[in-house]
Amino acid sequence: MRTAVVERALDPAALLAEVSRPANGAALLFVGTVREVNDGRAVSGIDYAAYAAMAARELEAIAAEATERFATPDVVVEHRLGTLGLGEASVAIAVAHPHRGAAYDASRFVIEELKRRVPIWKREHYADGTREWVDPTAARTAAGGESRP
Amino acid sequence: MTVTVLLFAAYADALGPTVELDLAADSTVADVVRGLADLPAGRALPPRPLVAVNQSYAPYEHPVRAGDEIAVIPPVAGG
């Protein structure tokens, strides 16, 4: 298991290689990338910012939970900070397991928990020159939902 | 006691990256949030933002002590 919050380009293939062992019959790589449209607005790039110390801690806790819950030590996660262009990788999650079912479940677990708990924020740059911090809870909060993880 | 509160993203844009608050000795996370809401730019915060104490999410009844690392966490958007 290994996690990192970094300020350099990710190398997802290297993460996949890191978890691949003969004991594993399944290796999965999830790569999150900067998408060109969000909520109908044309996006030209994203700044990723973090509460770095806590983000590193939460990411490590999530990976540790995944290794216990899905019984594999082979979980590697990296999240990138800084300014990213379209198509660049912001997060890479590599998981390997003797069997595919648990590998898929572990990969999904890590990305969903990351999006729920890790204190990282993104400010989208729009084609019209404006920039805004993204609030994924805006719709839920407006409907009276709780934002607490 | 004086506590320093860390702010991030949209909250930092409104209130600055750090805010010092003067609180009573037996204060809780709820008192930190109330202290921030009372600042001139405090209306930029939602009524119940997430708070972390010493890098862990903390409930509003959690006590705060001088020297704690207190952070107000905007809705996270990683990935």
Can you offer a commentary on this structure?
- The complex is a heterodimer of chains A (about 150) and B (about 80).
- By secondary structure, chain A is α+β, with helices and mostly antiparallel strands.
- Chain A has one domain: Aldehyde Oxidoreductase, domain 3 (Alpha-Beta Complex), CATH 3.90.1170.
- Chain A has four helices and nine strands.
- In chain A, the strands form two sheets. In chain A, strands 3, 4, 6, 8 and 9 form a five-stranded antiparallel sheet that branches. Chain A has a four-stranded mixed sheet with strand order 1-5-7-2, sandwiched between helices.
- In chain A, β8 and β9 form a beta hairpin.
- Chain A is elongated, with a radius of gyration of 16 Å.
- The two termini of chain A are about 25 Å apart.
- The C terminus of chain A is likely disordered.
- With about 80 residues, chain B is an alpha+beta fold.
- Chain B has one domain: Ubiquitin-like (UB roll), CATH 3.10.20.30.
- Chain B is built from two helices and five strands; from the N terminus they run βαβαβββ.
- A five-stranded mixed sheet of chain B has the order 2-1-5-3-4.
- The longest helix of chain B has 9 residues.
- The radius of gyration of chain B is 12 Å and the shape is globular.
- At the A-B interface, β4, α2, α3 and β8 of A face α1 and β4 of B.
